[in-house]
Amino acid sequence: TGGSDSFGNVWTDSNSNDDYDYSWVDINDVGTLYNFSNNDQAGASVSLGFDFSFYGENYNSLIVNPNGWVGFGDDSDAWDNTNIPSTDAPRSAIFGLWDDLNPVNDNCNSYCSGNVYTHGNSERFVVWFNEVAHWWTNFEDSYYDFQVVLYPNGDIDVNYNSLTGTHDATIGIQNASGMDGIQVSSGSGFATNNKSLIISTGLDWLDLS
To answer: Quick one: the chain helix, strand, coil %, rounded to 5?
Structure first.
């Protein structure tokens, strides 16, 4: 449906491609609460339990930023999302719904809402934003229930369960230099209820002898 970037990543979604269905990985009973000190900074690094290949590098842990993205490099407190790829955006990173979000944190204001949970096994690693609020100003009563799922083969799913209100999010991926990436969407049109985004490096080729 979209792409590719210079590395060969492509994307599609369950609304546009009959070969893919909307899916949701339920970690409600097994997820671990992820803690934030404030609403713009990631918490501690979390082990994936496997090596995840992303733009030619293997990572075995990630950070979760409260503003709707996960990353493999340095944290960023950038709450005002931009187009990607860009050296001004977090990198290397997967942007599930990069916007000015306001989950429960150690310095909550009266409008913070929703927690983030993680869970991993040998088959996949899930980061679940559970009914996380947008920063209140100009986005009143806006809450987002979505998850980012990483697989050992390098595939990425972003599953949107329920999006209430409005958003103006950047969705996509970019590498560590900020010079290569895929912007699936920037704005409010792409992410909708009961929809899955699939990002992949495409076919795995077979050498024959």
So the answer is: 0, 45, 55
Transcribe 139-208 into DSSP letters: -TT-EEEEEEEE-TTS-EEEEEEEEES---EEEEEE-TTSSSEEEEEEESSS--SSEEEEEE--PPP---
Note the pTM of the prediction, 2 decimals. 0.95
Instruction: Give the pLDDT of residue 206.
Output: 57
Give the SS3 label for residue 134.
strand
3-state secondary structure of 2: strand
| 85/68 Cα distance (integer angstroms) | 17
40-57 per-position pLDDT tens digit:
999 999 999 999 999 999
Which residue has 């493999």 as its token pair? 72
Number of other residues whose CB lies within 10 A of the CB of residue 37: 12
* Residue 50 CB partners (closer than 8 Å, separation 6+): 60, 120, 122, 125, 152
Edge-to-edge strand list for the sheet holding 156-164: 2-3, 10-13, 195-200, 156-164, 143-150, 125-133, 115-120, 32-34
In the predicted model, residues of the chain with pLDDT beneath 70 are: 202-209
pLDDT of res. 191? 97
Contact indicator for 198, 106 with CB cutoff of 8 Å: no
Residue 17: half-sphere exposure toward Cβ, Cα within 13 Å: 15
Q: What is the pLDDT of residue 209?
A: 60
How many angstroms separate the CA atoms of 36 and 21, rounded?
A: 32
